[in-house]
């Protein structure tokens, strides 16, 4: 495990700072058992950052409602802390979950990282 | 632990018994994908079924007695029927107000859940959930 990353058997979160944003790059499957890994990474990023946390979900291959709950919660806490949460997603697993849940309005999604950092 | 059922006479039924533990969810998703793929489901329907089974089993695992088993039975016909059961201390099931329930009902073509009395030994309540999913192709 490299410095600045947390991981589980099937989920890995790498963290880096890019300009004014903290970028969390998530790889693997987010379900009920791995969602706490993402929650912890989000907490840490919100606590340690200024204005923006970008959660890059491009390499997420499964995204259950537990993952959605984590992101909605992070968004709420980010709002209180003055931190904006942006998502990067272009694949079906993540987009479909967000569509089904009907939370597109609450979670701003960018098709690529450059867009989320702009 | 579950009520006895007649085996499917066509012999296509698949029953999985696995620890009622969230760590087993990836295995259940893999099996679900394999079942849907063998029925020639399109990629979107496979992904939806995988998500539905994950949500259903997550809800059950949360309520299961520690160390007990989760049973998932797949009956692939013109649609795929999935019945999942666990043994629980509580009969407070299902929580139709939960976000997971909403997701499940959107993902599936039919959805039912209920509670039946467990065997005298070891007791408890059998929580079950039954869902079906058709292949989206030809549907739209």
Secondary structure blueprint with pairings:
The complex is a heterodimer of chains A (118) and B (140).
Chain A: E1 5-7, E2 11-18, E3 21-30, H1 35-48, E4 52-63, H2 65-81, E5 84-88, H3 92-101, E6 109-110, H4 113-117
Parallel strand pairs in A: 3-4, 4-5, 5-6
Antiparallel strand pairs in A: 1-2, 2-3
Helix pairs in contact in A: 1-2
Chain B: E1 14-19, H1 25-38, H2 43-63, E2 69-76, E3 79-88, H3 99-107, E4 110-117, E5 125-134
Antiparallel strand pairs in B: 1-2, 2-3, 3-5, 4-5
Helix pairs in contact in B: 1-2, 2-3
The residue fraction in helices of chain A comes out at 25-40%
- Shape field of chain B: globular
Sequence stretches where pLDDT stays below 50 over 5 or more residues of chain A: none
Label the structural class of chain A.
Answer: alpha/beta
- Read across the widest sheet of chain B, the strand sequence of neighbours is 1-2-3-5-4
- Strand percentage of chain B lies at 25-35%
Uncertain spans of chain B, ≥5 residues at pLDDT below 50?
none
Distance between the termini of chain B: 40 Å
Q: Which sequence of SSEs, written as H and E, runs from N to C of chain B?
A: EHHEEHEE
Describe the main β-sheet of chain B briefly.
Answer: 5 strands, antiparallel
Please describe what this structure looks like.
- The complex is a heterodimer of chains A (118) and B (140).
- The model of chain A has no long low-confidence stretch (mean pLDDT 91).
- In chain A, helix 1 (35-48) packs parallel to helix 2.
- Chain A has helices at 35-48, 65-81, 92-101, 113-117, and strands at 5-7, 11-18, 21-30, 52-63, 84-88, 109-110.
- The radius of gyration of chain A is 13 Å and the shape is globular.
- Chain A contains 4 helices and 6 strands; from the N terminus they run E-E-E-H-E-H-E-H-E-H.
- Chain A has a single domain (3-110), classed as Transcription Regulator spoIIAA (2-Layer Sandwich).
- With 118 residues, chain A is of the alpha/beta class.
- The longest helix of chain A has 17 residues, at 65-81.
- Chain A has a 6-stranded mixed β-sheet.
- Chain A starts with a strand and ends with a helix.
- The N and C termini of chain B lie far apart (40 Å).
- Chain B is an alpha+beta fold and 140 residues long.
- In chain B, strands 1-2-3-5-4 form a 5-stranded antiparallel β-sheet, with helices on one face.
- Chain B is built from 3 helices and 5 strands; from the N terminus they run E-H-H-E-E-H-E-E.
- Chain B is globular.
- Chain B has a single domain, classed as 2-Layer Sandwich (Heat Shock Protein 90).
- Chain B has helices at residues 25-38, 43-63, 99-107, and strands spanning 14-19, 69-76, 79-88, 110-117, 125-134.
- The A-B interface holds A 10, 29, 31-33, 62, 64-66, 68-69, 92-93, 96-97, 100-101 and B 22-23, 25-26, 29, 43-44, 47-48, 50-51, 54-55, 58, 61-62, 99-100, 102-103, 106-107.
- Chain B: One of its GO terms (molecular function) is protein serine/threonine kinase activity.
- Chain B: This is Anti-sigma regulatory factor, serine/threonine protein kinase.
- Chain B: InterPro entries: HATPase_C_sf.
């Amino acid at each position: 495990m490299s410095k600045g990353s947390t991981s589980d058997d099937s989920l890995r979160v790498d963290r880096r700072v890019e300009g004014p944003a903290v970028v969390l790059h998530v790889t693997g499957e987010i379900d009920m058992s791995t969602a706490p890994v993402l929650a912890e990474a989000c907490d840490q990023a919100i606590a340690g950052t200024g204005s923006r946390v970008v959660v890059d979900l491009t390499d997420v291959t499964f995204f259950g409602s537990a993952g959605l709950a984590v992101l909605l919660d992070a968004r709420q806490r980010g709002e209180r802390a003055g931190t904006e949460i942006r998502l990067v997603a272009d694949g079906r697993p993540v987009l479909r979950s967000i569509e089904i849940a009907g939370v597109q309005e609450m979670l701003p999604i960018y098709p690529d990282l450059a867009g989320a950092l702009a | 632990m579950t009520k006895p059922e007649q085996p499917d006479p066509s012999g296509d039924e698949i029953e999985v018994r696995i620890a009622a533990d969230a760590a087993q969810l990836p295995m259940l998703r893999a099996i679900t994908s394999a079942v849907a793929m063998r029925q020639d489901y399109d990629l979107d329907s496979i992904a939806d079924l995988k998500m539905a089974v994950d949500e259903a089993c997550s809800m059950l695992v949360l309520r299961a007695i520690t160390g007990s088993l989760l049973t998932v039975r797949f009956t692939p016909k013109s649609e795929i029927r999935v019945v999942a059961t666990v043994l629980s201390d509580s009969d407070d099931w299902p929580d139709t107000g939960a976000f997971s329930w909403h997701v499940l009902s959107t993902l599936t073509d039919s959805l039912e859940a209920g509670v039946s009395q467990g065997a005298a030994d070891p007791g408890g309540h059998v929580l079950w959930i039954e869902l079906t999913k058709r292949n989206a192709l030809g549907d739209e």
